[in-house]
From TrEMBL:
Database matches in Pfam families: YCII (PF03795)
Taxonomic source organism: Leucothrix arctica
Name listed for the protein in its UniProt record: YCII-related domain-containing protein
SUPFAM superfamilies, per the entry: Dimeric alpha+beta barrel
Entry coiled-coil feature ranges: none
Domain YCII-related: 64-112
Annotated transmembrane regions: none
Amino acid sequence: MSQKNYMCILRSAAGGCSTDEQPSPSDMEQMFAKYQAWQDKFADNIVDMGGQLGDSASVVSQDGVTDGPFMELKEIVGGYMLLKADTLEEANGVITASPMVENPGVSIEIREIHTP
């Protein structure tokens, strides 16, 4: 069976990414180690780690180009990544094991990419 590609869209509650309290260097080291262990475990599934999206954007429609993103949204799309898996359930398992979903207010939408 050929593996399918999945787009993973990282979302967080508006304002959920900001914090007044910065993690300590020890906490940062532990978070990095946990994240690296997840990446190593699922290296065969991870196609592209993607990245964080910038603050400036635009929305193009039939009516023209509008500045964005729009901060009044309840959720902010903050990043993306690409996975490959045999099934959506397998892709769900990869993301469920990710340290990213441990953060309050964070969700990751997983959608299959259909190619012609």
